[in-house]
Design goal:
Strand content: 5-15%
Largest sheet: 3 strands, parallel
Strand order of the largest sheet: 1-3-5
Structural class: alpha/beta
Number of helices: 3
Radius of gyration: 17 Å
């Protein structure tokens, strides 16, 4: 997001950088003081990001949060896509896809080792528990009520979402997520 009439810094990472997420957040955490707020409008499906990058980014985001900095991250443009990145196939079997931590040898902080099955996969770094994930909305620009962007309603994109298979679900989210899944009649969705 961009705030009018406020100082802004644009950070650019080249396509040749091996870990632009970690490079950026480490630079932010090394600033004294760090920026009070940052907005990230890019990401990658969490299952395609290495365990090292997930852990490193999370550590730096935790440090920034402890210093009072806010990081707002876009949830992605493909809905709650499968682990292959194909939107509109949210229940697809994901047990044979994804990165190495997604196999029986892996497992992140709080994730089941060897988790496989079906699910709704978020984009990283929006899945990091120390950032605020923000989805796109539509409607007011045409005088309609505001709703989440969704291609089924005429949106150009479908705002992202899903459940991390790497980061543990925070305790304060558990009752809300359980109620959501009950209301959505999502008994077939295997939670990590």
């Amino acid at each position: 997001g961009v705030a009018q009439n406020s100082p802004s810094i644009y950070w650019y990472s080249s396509n040749t950088e091996t870990d632009p997420f970690v490079s950026w957040i480490t630079s932010m955490a090394d600033m004294n003081p760090p920026p009070q707020s940052s907005s990230i409008s890019y990401g990658a499906q969490e299952t395609t990001v290495s365990t090292t990058v997930l852990k490193s980014f999370n550590t730096q985001a935790m440090k920034l949060a402890a210093m009072g900095a806010t990081i707002v991250v876009a949830t992605g443009n493909d809905g709650a896509s499968t682990s292959t990145g194909d939107s509109c196939q949210c229940g697809a079997d994901s047990s044979s896809k994804g990165s190495s931590w997604y196999s029986s040898s892996g497992g992140g902080a709080g994730a089941k080792s060897g988790w496989s099955g079906q699910g709704y996969f978020p984009y990283f770094p929006a899945s990091c528990p120390y950032v605020t994930a923000v989805g796109a909305t539509m409607g007011p620009e045409y005088g309609n009520p505001e709703v989440a962007c969704q291609s089924q309603q005429g949106g150009v994109i479908s705002s992202g979402g899903g459940f991390s298979t790497f980061f543990a679900q925070p305790a304060w989210q558990q009752p809300t997520v359980a109620a959501y899944l009950r209301a959505a009649n999502a008994s077939e969705l295997t939670m990590p």
